[in-house]
C-alpha cells in the first residue's frame, strides 16, 4: 500500500489595503467568479462585509517575535497554526486567500512564509495584492506608515474607486505610488473589477520571476521624499558580480539596515558562472538561488532594487558597484565597513 | 512482505483511511480505538466504522474521562464519541476552532478555543473559562487532575482547576510556545517552541531548562511511565532528556533509534515500561527500549509522515496513523 503526501505547495494570495479601499469587494469577486477553483479564505474579524465561501477562517493577527537573532523578525503566529490545520484537508481547495486588517503591517505575513519550516514546505506566497482607494490614498499616505508599507510590499496594486476621481487626479496618485514602488503592477479599477487572473496565480515571489517586469516609471533622483517616507532605489552594473563580495556586503546591509528595508530584490550575473542568480529579502530575511542559464543576447547587467525608508542612495550605489569583479578590494572593504557597527 | 512490516502483518490490522490522521486515542474502558481525521470523521478500529464528527476537520482528540473519546473541530464543536461509535455534542463555541482537548479520569474535560480554556464536568456542564493573553496552543492536566497547564505566546499558564479565585501561575519565557506537558510527578512543566527548542520550568524554584539542538520543530513529546525520561520528536532519532539525578540541567540527552537521517515526528511512551514508540517522517513506526536501546520495527516506511501514535491504557496495543491516511493497530500482548 503506498502512502505519499508529496504535493505541490498551495499558493497563498495576500490581500491588503486600508479599511474601505475595497478589499472585501475584491475578495468576493474572486470567490464568486466562475473559475472552477476553490479557495480557503482567512479573514480578520473586522471584515467590512460578509464573505460567502465554504471554508472561511477567522484570524486574530497575532504577531510574534522570533528569537532567531534577527531583531525585526516577526511572524504571524495565528497564520502558522491556521495554515498548518488547513494543510490537513488540502484536497478541499486549490489556493488560500488571506485578507489582512487595514492597519496590518504586511511584513510579518510575508516573513511567516520565509521563516516557518512547515509553512515553507506546504505553501508558497503567490503575491501581495494591495487595494487602494484612488480618492483617499494621498491622505492615507500622509498620515499612516501602514499605508506606505502596504504599497511598498505590493506585487500588484489595485487602484480602486476610479469613478470617484478625474483622470488627472488618478495620474497624480499613480505617480505617488510609483515613487514608493515602481515595480508593482498597477491595475485601475472601479468596484475592484480587475480580471481575476491579474491577482491570482501570479507566482510573484518565485525567484525566477523577480524583476521580470520592467518598471513603468522609475523614480528619479529629483523625486525627494522625507526620510521617514518609503521610496525605492535601483542600480544596474555592467561588470560581473563577485559572489563573495556581494554576499559579504548585502549581509551587512541587511543586518544594519534591515528594519528600514521593506523589500530588496536583485538579479545577479556572477563572474565565472553561466547562470543568473536571483535574490530577494523581506527586511532581514533573505532568500536566493540560481534561476537558470544566461540566454544568448542577454546584456548581463546585474540589478538590485531596494524599497524602504531613509535609503542612502550614494552608499547603496557605491556598495553595489564595489561588488563587481575586478574592482579594487579595498573599495568593498570600505563599503562593508560603512554598514558595520562602530567599534565601541 | 518487508521484514520491517512483520509485526503489522502478523499482529496488526491496517487500513487506508483516505485523509490526514490528526490523532489517535484509546478509550479508557480499554476497548475502543479512535482515529480522528482531517476530513472531519472519526474512524473506529473495530470494523473501521466511520463516524461523522465534525463539519470540516477534526483538530484534536483525546480519551474522554471514563470511556470513548473527545474530539475538537474547526466547526467550533466539542464532540464525544462512545466506544460503539455514537457521536454526541458536548459543547459548541461558535465560529472559533476547538484546537485542543484534554480529559482526566476524575471526570474533568478541557477545550482550548482561541485564547480561552473551557473546563467542563463529566456531564458537559461548563465549570469555568480560563483566559490567556494569546491563543492557547496546548493544554495538559497533571496526573491528579488538580492542575491544568496551557501554552501560549511568551510562556505557559498553570491553573488550579478547583480554585475559587482563578489566577494562574505564569511561567514566562519569551517566544512562541506551541505545546505543553506536565511531568507525571507534577514537578516540571515543559513546552515545545517555534524555534526548534523545548523550554522547561522546575516548579519548586522556577528554575528554567532549555533543551535545544533540534534540527526541526518538536511537535510531539511524552514522559516515560515513571517520569524518568522525556521522549521528544524533532530530531533524526528519539531524543530523551533525563529527569532524574539532577537532570536535565547540565545533562546530555540519550538518543534512540537514530542513524537513518529521517526526522522523528511523533512519540508515545508505554504506560508501564520504559519503552517508547516513535513514528518518523517517512512513515516508519518502531518501538525502542530505553535501557537497552533495542529497537523493534512495527511498520515499514510508506512515504508519508507518522502524524498520530498512541498506546492503550495497559500497553498491549499500539495505534498509529500518517498524514497520507494510512492507519494501523497492532496487538503487542504476550502470546
TrEMBL record, chain A:
Annotated GO MF terms: hydrolase activity; nucleotide binding
Pfam families: cobW, CobW_C
Recorded superkingdom: Bacteria
Residue ranges that the Swiss-Prot or TrEMBL entry lists as coiled coil: none
CDD domains per the UniProt record, alphabetical: CobW-like (cd03112)
Keywords, in A-Z order: Chaperone, Hydrolase, Nucleotide-binding
Domain CobW C-terminal intervals: 230-324
Catalytic activity: GTP + H2O = GDP + phosphate + H(+)
Function per UniProt: Zinc chaperone that directly transfers zinc cofactor to target proteins, thereby activating them. Zinc is transferred from the CXCC motif in the GTPase domain to the zinc binding site in target proteins in a process requiring GTP hydrolysis.
Family as reported in the entry's similarity comment: Belongs to the SIMIBI class G3E GTPase family. ZNG1 subfamily.
Name of the molecule in the record: Cobalamin biosynthesis protein CobW
Organism per entry: Neoroseomonas lacus
Lineage: Bacteria, Pseudomonadati, Pseudomonadota, Alphaproteobacteria, Acetobacterales
UniProtKB/TrEMBL annotation, chain B:
Protein origin, superkingdom: Bacteria
Alphabetically ordered keywords of this record: Repeat, WD repeat
InterPro entries: WD40/YVTN_repeat-like_dom_sf, WD40_repeat_dom_sf, WD40_rpt
SMART domains membership: WD40
Keyword Repeat: yes
Protein name from the UniProt record: WD40 repeat domain-containing protein
Organism of origin: Neoroseomonas lacus
Source organism phylogeny: Bacteria, Pseudomonadati, Pseudomonadota, Alphaproteobacteria, Acetobacterales
Amino acid at each position: 500500500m503506498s502512502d505519499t503526501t508529496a504535493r505541490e505547495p498551495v499558493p497563498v494570495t495576500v490581500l491588503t489595503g486600508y479599511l474601505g479601499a475595497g478589499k472585501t469587494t475584491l475578495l468576493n469577486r474572486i470567490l464568486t467568479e466562475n473559475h472552477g477553483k476553490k479557495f480557503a479564505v482567512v479573514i480578520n474579524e473586522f471584515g467590512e462585509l460578509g464573505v460567502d465561501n465554504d471554508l472561511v477562517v477567522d484570524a486574530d493577527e497575532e504577531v510574534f517575535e522570533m528569537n532567531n537573532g534577527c531583531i525585526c523578525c516577526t511572524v504571524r503566529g495565528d497564520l502558522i497554526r491556521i495554515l498548518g490545520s488547513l494543510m490537513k484537508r488540502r484536497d478541499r481547495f486549490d489556493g488560500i486567500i488571506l485578507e489582512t486588517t487595514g492597519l496590518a503591517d504586511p511584513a510579518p505575513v510575508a516573513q511567516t512564509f520565509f521563516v516557518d519550516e512547515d509553512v515553507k514546505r506546504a505553501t508558497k506566497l503567490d503575491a501581495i495584492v494591495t487595494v487602494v482607494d484612488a480618492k483617499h490614498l494621498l491622505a492615507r499616505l500622509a498620515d499612516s506608515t501602514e499605508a506606505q508599507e502596504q504599497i511598498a510590499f505590493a506585487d500588484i496594486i489595485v487602484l480602486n474607486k476610479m469613478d470617484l476621481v478625474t483622470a488627472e487626479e488618478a495620474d497624480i496618485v499613480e505617480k505617488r505610488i510609483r515613487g514608493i514602488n515602481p515595480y508593482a503592477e498597477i491595475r485601475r479599477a472601479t468596484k475592484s473589477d480587475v480580471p481575476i487572473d491579474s491577482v491570482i496565480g501570479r507566482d510573484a515571489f518565485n525567484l525566477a520571476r523577480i524583476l521580470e517586469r520592467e518598471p513603468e516609471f522609475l523614480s528619479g533622483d529629483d523625486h525627494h521624499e522625507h526620510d521617514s517616507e518609503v521610496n525605492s532605489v535601483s542600480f544596474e552594473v555592467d561588470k560581473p558580480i563577485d559572489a563573495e563580495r556581494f554576499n559579504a556586503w548585502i549581509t551587512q546591509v541587511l543586518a544594519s539596515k534591515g528594519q528600514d528595508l521593506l523589500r530588496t530584490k536583485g538579479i545577479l550575473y556572477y563572474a565565472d558562472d553561466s547562470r543568473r542568480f536571483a535574490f530577494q529579502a523581506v527586511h532581514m530575511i533573505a532568500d536566493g538561488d540560481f534561476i537558470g542559464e544566461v540566454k544568448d543576447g542577454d546584456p548581463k547587467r546585474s540589478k538590485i532594487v531596494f524599497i524602504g525608508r531613509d535609503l542612502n542612495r550614494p552608499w547603496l550605489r557605491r556598495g553595489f558597484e564595489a561588488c563587481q569583479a575586478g574592482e579594487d578590494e579595498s573599495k568593498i572593504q570600505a563599503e562593508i565597513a560603512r554598514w558595520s557597527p562602530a567599534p565601541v | 512482505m518487508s521484514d520491517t512490516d512483520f509485526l503489522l502483518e502478523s499482529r496488526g490490522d491496517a487500513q487506508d483511511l483516505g485523509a490526514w490522521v490528526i490523532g489517535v486515542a484509546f478509550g479508557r474502558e480499554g476497548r475502543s480505538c479512535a482515529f480522528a481525521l482531517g476530513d472531519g470523521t472519526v474512524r473506529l478500529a473495530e470494523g473501521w466504522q466511520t463516524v461523522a464528527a465534525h463539519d470540516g476537520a477534526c483538530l484534536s482528540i483525546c480519551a474522554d474521562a471514563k470511556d470513548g473519546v473527545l474530539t475538537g473541530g474547526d466547526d467550533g464543536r466539542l464532540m464525544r464519541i462512545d466506544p460503539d461509535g455514537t457521536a454526541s455534542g458536548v459543547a459548541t463555541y461558535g465560529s472559533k476552532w476547538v484546537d485542543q482537548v484534554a480529559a482526566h479520569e476524575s471526570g474533568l474535560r478541557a477545550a482550548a478555543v482561541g485564547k480561552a480554556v473551557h473546563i467542563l464536568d463529566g456531564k458537559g456542564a461548563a465549570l469555568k473559562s480560563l483566559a490567556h493573553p494569546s491563543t492557547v496552543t496546548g493544554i495538559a492536566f497533571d496526573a491528579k487532575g488538580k492542575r491544568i497547564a496551557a501554552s501560549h505566546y511568551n510562556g505557559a499558564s498553570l491553573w488550579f482547576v478547583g480554585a475559587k479565585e482563578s489566577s494562574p501561575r505564569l511561567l514566562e519565557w519569551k517566544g512562541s510556545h506551541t505545546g505543553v506537558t506536565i511531568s507525571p510527578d507534577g514537578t516540571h512543566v515543559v513546552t515545545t517552541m517555534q524555534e526548534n527548542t523545548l523550554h522547561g520550568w522546575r516548579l519548586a524554584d522556577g528554575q528554567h531548562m532549555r533543551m535545544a539542538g533540534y534540527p526541526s520543530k518538536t511537535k510531539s513529546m511524552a514522559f516515560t511511565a515513571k517520569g524518568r525520561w522525556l521522549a521528544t520528536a524533532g530530531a533524526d532519532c528519539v531524543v530523551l532528556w533525563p529527569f532524574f539525578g539532577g537532570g536535565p540541567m547540565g545533562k546530555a540527552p540519550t538518543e534512540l533509534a537514530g542513524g537513518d537521517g529521517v526526522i522523528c515526528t511523533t512519540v508515545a511512551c508505554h504506560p508501564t515500561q520504559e519503552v517508547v514508540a516513535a513514528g518518523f517522517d517517512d512513515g516508519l513506526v518502531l518501538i525502542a527500549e530505553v535501557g537497552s536501546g533495542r529497537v523493534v520495527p512495527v511498520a515499514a516506511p510508506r512515504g508519508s509522515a507518522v502524524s498520530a501514535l498512541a498506546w492503550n491504557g495497559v500497553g498491549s496495543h499500539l495505534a498509529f496513523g500518517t498524514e497520507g491516511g494510512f492507519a494501523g493497530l497492532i496487538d503487542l500482548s504476550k502470546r
